[in-house]
Amino acid sequence: MKKQFKSESKRLLDLMIHSIYTNKDIFLRELISNASDALDKLYYQSLTDKKIKVRKNTLKIELSLDKDKRSITISDNGCGMNKEELETNLGTIAKSGTLAFKEMMDKDPKDGVDIIGQFGVGFYSAFMVSKKIEVDSKKDDEDSYIWISDGVDGYTIKKSTKDTRGTSITLYLKDDTDDENYSNYLDEYKINELVKKYSDYISYPIKMECLTRKLKEGSKDEYEDVREVQTLNSMVPIWKKPAGEVTDDEYNSFYKDRYYDFNDPLKVITTSVEGMTSYKAILFIPSKVPYDFYNKDYEKGLALYSNGVMIMDKCKELVPDYFSFIKGVVDTEDLSLNISREMLQQTKTVEIIAKNIENKINKELLKMLKEDRETYNKFYEAFGTGLKFGVYNNFGMNKDKLKDLLMFYSAKNKKNITLSEYVKGMKKDQTEIYYASGNSVEAIDKLPQVEQVKDKDYDILYLTDYVDEFCLNTLMKYDEKSFKNVSDGKLDLESDKEKEKIKKENDEHKELLDFLKDNLDVCEVRFTNKLKKHPVCFTSRGEVSIEMEKVINAMPTDENIKSEKILEINKNHKIADKIKKLYKNDKDELLKYAKILYNEACLIEGLPVEDPVELSNLISEIMAK
Ligand code: ADP
Q1: In a mutational test of the pocket of ligand 1, which residue from 36, 37, 128 has the highest number of ligand atoms less than 8 Å from its CB?
Q2: Which letter does DSSP use for residue 615 in this model?
Q3: Which of 314, 541, 560, 583 matches a 20 to 30 Å C-alpha distance to 375?
Q4: Is 38 a pocket residue for ligand 1 (Cβ < 6 Å)?
């Protein structure tokens, strides 16, 4: 009886049959990788279940081509599937990648088509090239069953005669069209090439009978063509090969195939450690932020192998959160294959490897920063925010490890610089590291508070990422120099003489300033001599800066935080004289001016104006005078 595919699978199948994806070659990789998983599974079972007896060196994948029937068969002697498993595994979408792909298609089918290559498309990809597929399978000593489908409207399952454990998948190729030459896949040479390209590191032999040219027996120079079973893959996983023997191209294509990325990795890091704990690792820094990096389902982690056999696809204990962009593989002989996930978390081995790997990444990044700034800039653009969070998270526990990897935009250099570079460039009389926050470099550059620091010829770090200020606050100091916000009310850059002068001015007008303070939402109003042409600005006192107030209040929590603001009025601006006069003659009018000045400072800081209608009326009223 014919059964229907589950509806979600149907849609995906439809896409596969109508071949939206141009790289059809990958079907072979997908089926071989499933076969390899089935062999892994069986071997793994044999380690934990004494009843299952398997000799590792008998495990293999076999390919055969039949030109007459236009078919390819991929067989393995792995765990096999019983009737129920054929039904559930092949009748529904199992693979997480496939599911993610389906979700993406549901959201925006157009985008999905472009990025399908980033997903493992699994068993169904075989329908891109086949008009009919048969999956003949036997599990342990259960009966064998064959699953048959033309992919369009369902499948049938019936008893079969297969008498050895494992799975044999036969694809009946589609007919050739003007655009597609499916017969290609019946060519031994083509299949050989595809296996080498996509599945070379599969740790089981992939065997196929091929035509080979050999010396005739007994002859020294006469050749003959014979058919002979050959192993097509080299089987040595790329991370087990000596680093010098692997080309950049090989690393790059390993990365791209395995992590479904179109781009070469930004950096490949290989490491091989022998000692109390021995392991080999190959790590990649992607060149772009992975498409799902900011999804809550994004899982960090490295694949963990025990001597060539995968234990876990994503072992999250192997990389800290701030390096969650790192992809790669760790292979160690010091873990037994049948270790459970829970045990894994407690073993010292994983902890030691994780520590080493963290140090290695750190070292490589520092090296890149020093020797190849251009690449580091690209890296930082993609993943720098994560490092800053790394400093800030866990109460700054990791700040010392990360502080030298940080960069911020320097007003003087007009590009990102490190904190150590900032300190090196500090003026003789400068004791603190200055920074200013805002939405963009251009916006910060116009801030009145920046002027005075620039006048002193001190550099300023411009913070435009919302985590920046929290990051610096967590660091507290770098190289014994503390960080100072240019909007801090106690900037203390004036000479003693200037200080004296402004103090006098403020004392003289204390009554006026207090009157303004009492009528505005600030903790102080004062005259200042640090603003050159600007009439007013805010500075703040205490822990919470104005930028932090903005960031925290923009977060979707109930938390509402206010900075303690000081309204500073330029004592040399005409407006200062005006308000002094108004204080004497017309207090009502003064309050209107004060409101406008207060709102001007809000606008400069990017803070919301509380009552825009009132403000606009006030401005018009004064303009009309
Ligand atoms: P995935 O391999 O990611 O789970 P697939 O759609 O490729 O997704 O395969 C679905 C399921 O079918 C697999 O999870 C596995 O249980 C089963 N399967 C596929 N091929 C084989 C095979 N050769 N031997 C045993 N089981 C297989």
Answers
A1: 37
A2: H
A3: 314
A4: yes
Which two tokens mark 459? Answer: 């550099």
C-alpha 92 – ligand 1 centre gap (Å): 11
- Name the architecture of domain 238-372: 2-Layer Sandwich (3.30)
Q: Helix count (H) and strand count (E) of the chain?
A: 21, 22
Q: Distance from the CA of 119 to the center of ligand 1, in angstroms? A: 15
Domain boundaries, the chain: 7-231, 238-372, 497-625
Structure tokens at 36: 């390899």
pTM over 0.85: no
Q: Which of 499, 526, 522, 500 is nearest to 513 (CA)?
A: 526
Residue 89: name the closest of 11, 34, 160 by CA.
34
Overall average pLDDT of the 86-110 stretch: 64
Residue to substitute in 30, 34, 133 for testing ligand 1 pocket (most ligand atoms within 8 angstroms of CB): 34
Distance of alpha carbon 173 from alpha carbon 185, whole angstroms = 8
CB atoms within 10 A of CB 453: 22
- Judged on CB neighbours under 10 Å (0-12, 13-18, 19+), 215 is exposed
Q: Inter-axis angle of helices 510-519 and 574-585, to 10 degrees? A: 90
C-beta 92 within 6 A of ligand 1: no
CATH number corresponding to 497-625: 1.20.120.790
Q: Say yes or no: CB of residue 77 within 6 Å of ligand 1.
A: no
Using pLDDT thresholds of 50, 70 and 90, give the confidence band for residue 96.
very low
Residues linked to residue 310 through DSSP beta bridges, in sequence order: 305
pLDDT, residue 512, reads 95
Structure token pair of residue 473: 């606050």
Locate the ligand 1 atom nearest the alpha carbon of residue 30 and give its number: 7
- The answer for residues whose C-beta is within 8 angstroms of residue 34's C-beta and 6 or more apart is 122, 123
CB-ligand 1 contact for 76 (6 Å cutoff): yes
User: What homologous superfamily is domain 7-231 in, according to CATH?
Assistant: Histidine kinase-like ATPase, C-terminal domain (3.30.565.10)
Taking the C-alpha atoms of residue 500 and residue 478, their distance in angstroms, rounded to an integer, is 32
Which stretches of 544-586 are assigned E, i.e. beta strand? 564-570
Report the distance separating Cα 415 and Cα 201, nearest Å.
43
Burial class of residue 294 (count of CB atoms within 10 Å of its CB; 0-12, 13-18, 19+)? exposed
Paired tokens of 582 = 């108004």
Nearest to 25 by CA among 76, 86, 72: 72
Q: Which residue has the higher pLDDT, 389 or 235?
A: 389
What are the pLDDT digits (tens) for 489-546? Answer: 888 888 899 999 999 999 999 999 999 999 999 999 999 988 888 999 999 998 888 8
Contacts of 99 (CB under 8 A, 6+ apart): 93
3-state secondary structure of 236: coil
Pairing of strands 536-541, 415-418: unpaired
pLDDT digits (tens, 9 = 90+) for 170-228: 999 999 999 889 999 999 999 999 998 778 878 899 999 998 888 888 888 888 899 99
